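Action item from last meeting closed. Structure (173 res):
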């Protein structure tokens, strides 16, 4: 410990890492969120919650360079595995939600394009359909997307509810 009872930044980081390593992997995000809440640090994503759903994915702790805010981020493959989409349209909704709410701040965007779907379907190891554009057209027809002009689509409340509340679908016996 440094003079005067204060720790250096490096010592504090070492202590945090040691404390988190003592916990199992599924409890680490909860501990980080609780500590950040206690200290009043803003920007910690709700992905650090205690539900089983949030524990399934891989989380990355990120610090915003400008604000210094902490956030927990989930990668698209883990999010796809958590949500278990059964069709390309459902996967397009998962990608749109991911880009709107879970992607790193520099990747976030409110609309999705066929190029976005191609990129994130590949990253998530999801089978590519023959025509990405048709996936978005079909998603709009199913009521999950609204057109945002020039080949862009925005997830609407129906699509949001599909991803947040309906996926993964309950397995029937």
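Sequence:
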């Amino acid at each position: 410990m440094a003079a005067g009872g204060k720790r250096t930044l490096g010592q504090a980081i070492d202590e945090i890492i040691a404390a988190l390593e003592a916990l199992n992997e599924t409890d680490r995000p909860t501990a980080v969120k609780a500590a950040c809440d206690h200290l009043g640090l803003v920007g910690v994503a709700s992905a650090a919650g205690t539900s089983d759903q949030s524990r399934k994915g891989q989380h990355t702790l990120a610090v915003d360079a400008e604000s210094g805010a902490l956030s927990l981020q989930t990668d698209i493959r883990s999010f796809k595995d958590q949500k278990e989409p059964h069709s390309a349209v459902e996967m397009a909704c998962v990608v749109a939600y991911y880009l709107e709410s879970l992607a790193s701040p520099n990747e976030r965007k409110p609309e999705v394009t066929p190029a976005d779907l191609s990129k994130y379907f590949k990253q998530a190891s999801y089978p590519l359909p023959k025509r990405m554009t048709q996936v978005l057209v079909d998603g709009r027809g199913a009521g999950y997307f609204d057109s945002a002009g020039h080949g862009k689509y925005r997830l609407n409340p129906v699509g949001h509810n599909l991803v947040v509340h309906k996926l993964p679908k309950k397995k029937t016996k």
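Note appended to the action item: Residues 8-74 form one domain.
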